[in-house]
Amino acid sequence: MATKELILTNVTKRFGGLVAVDDLSFNVQEGQIYGIIGPNGAGKTTVFNCITGIHPCEKGSIKWLGEEIRLLSPHQVAARGIVRTFQTIRLFGQMSVAENIMSGRHIKSSQGWWHGICPTPFSRADEHKNWDKVGELLDFFNLSEFAVNPVGSLSYGIQRRVEMARAMATEPSLMILDEPAAGLNDNETLGLIETIYKIREKGITILLIEHDMDLVMEVTEYLTVINFGKKIAEGTPGEIQAHPAVIEAYLGSDDDDDF
Amino acid sequence: MIKKLQPIAYPLFFLAMMSMPAFLDPRWLAVATTFIIFTIVALSTDIVLGKGGMFNMGQALFFGLGAYTSAILNAKFGWPLLATLPAAILIPALFGVLLAGPIVHLRGDYLLVTLIGFNIVFIQVLQNNLGGLTGGPNGIFGLDVISLPGMTDSPQLGAFYTALIALLITLLVMFNLDKSKAGRALHYLREDELAASSIGINTRVYKIFAFALGAGIAGMAGTIYANQYSAVSPEAFDFVQSVLFFSIVIVGGSSVPGIFLGVFVMFVLPEIFREFATWRYFIFGFAMIFTMILRPRGIWPATFGKIPRRLIKEGNNGN
After folding, report:
1. Is the pLDDT of residue B137 over 50?
2. Which of A87, A117, B138, B286 is the most exposed place for a label (fewest CB within 10 A)?
3. Is residue B308 a part of any domain in this protein?
4. pLDDT at B43 (0 to 100)
5. CA–CA dist A162, A168 (Å, integer)
6. Is residue B10 part of a domain?
7. Alpha helices (runs of H) in B76-107, residue ranges in sequence order
């Protein structure tokens, strides 16, 4: 049970009369790059919101490391090593890149609230250690030159990297990326693919939603396709491309893929 | 330029403040003392409103709670005023936790109205002489004063320097807060609460922490206020005072220099233009309006990017 596996069983999420996620089950194994695809409005982001505790699901079970995490709040989920990025980038806009990444160190820092009133040599050492870690991440994501810039003033592609760096700072076991390539140009997308591989090399499992089919087919090892909240297929990218239900779901919505 | 001045600006400021009594007549010394006390309360409001982004329009409640704690313990139980200080910090802080606990999840405007409500209830309690302790509408007077060594013959001077010491303590706390996990957590949850909780920040805990810390500091200012006037009365802690502290933070901006400017503009300037009677408030209202239009984040807003120098590499296109 101690394997770092995320198991969703019969997860159902309703918003009023709308069934956003319908009886969805899938397993993400340790070290995998797992993709979830589906047409717009298929309920992909809602699945992520269920996993990360933003919108807890009513039915089913979400197990992580053998523990039921369905009803945990977002910060508790993050404390268990699951961290996410957002489709619409959510950074701390007025603050610098380094401070944004430092926010990911929050759960790894051992300072108590009282150190905010009266620092001790221990808390100063802890600060120093965490800033060093931020320095490493700035290098890892090639963000050093922007360290003091307010993130709000940076380009979309760089903001995406900052968001991933912030997620990495929490030293997660599972990283959930919600449309990481949205709004990126071709060059930036290539950089993103490289970054995803680099993150996986660190032993982090990746679960991602993406509209860019080239990217999905290249980086993911296993896929679940959902439509109207229901799973319609799962398999390796090769199997999925040949799957009749998938072809049908995407027919007429071809333009979704080109973003 | 400003950056270069920063390390010496605060010592210079304190030296200037310490020499103030030599130039001021008793009336202006009293204004200066109240200026310092209001600055402390405004700084405590800034922790909740400026850093945490929670619309706190009830800070006068905690200010008054500290003042009344000191006054009651001194007048009714005979504690020396200085000995009441820990209680005047801890009781408001405790109330900060108790009052904020059930309401911090409320969004901006709802939270604001709730806090106004708390403030009004508090004033009613004071005016109705709860348990015969609060002295009703007249308050409590004839309190002892904190005697600083060498200033026993001039209570006014003593009050001024006591306030200055309290300000120094408050500023130290503010600087410590900015360089700590807890202080940053407040900035993060103000900027984007969902993102903050998604990376593991327990936003509820830190919001309550902000209220408790703000309340504790305001409580300390309450003791200093009771010490200055050797009396407390309900109207000094009215909800209108909360509006003043709120406006100071908004107009001044969420930074220490901003708060000083805010208190100066909102409290000292009206005193200077006293001879213009009610006209001063006319000008003062327009000053507020124009500040908000021209500088929506305040006269001197918070600045970020204060990161350890070793993280700033060559070729940095920042400053």
Report:
1. yes
2. B286
3. no
4. 96
5. 10
6. no
7. 85-100
Asked if A73 has any chain B CB less than 8 Å from its own CB, the reply is yes
Tally of domains within chain B: 1
Angle at A64 between CA A36 and CA A112, to 5 degrees: 115
- CA distance, residue A242 to nearest chain B CA (Å): 36
The predicted model scores a pTM of 0.91
User: Exposed, middle or buried by CB within 10 Å (0-12, 13-18, 19+), for A87?
Assistant: middle
A125 touches chain B (CB under 8 A): no
* Whole-number pLDDT of residue A251: 62
CA geometry: angle B45, B48, B53, nearest 5 deg: 120
pLDDT tens per residue across span B190-230: 999 999 999 999 999 999 999 999 999 999 999 999 999 99
Nearest CA in chain B to A116: B177
Does B52 fall in a domain? yes
Decide if B70 is inside a domain. Answer: yes
Contact B195 A73 (CB under 8 A): no
Residue of A nearest to B174 (CA): A117
What homologous superfamily does CATH list for A1-81+172-259?
Answer: P-loop containing nucleotide triphosphate hydrolases (3.40.50.300)
* Residue of chain A whose alpha carbon sits nearest to that of B183: A116
CB pairs under 8 A between A and B: 154
**Which residue type does B31 have?**
V
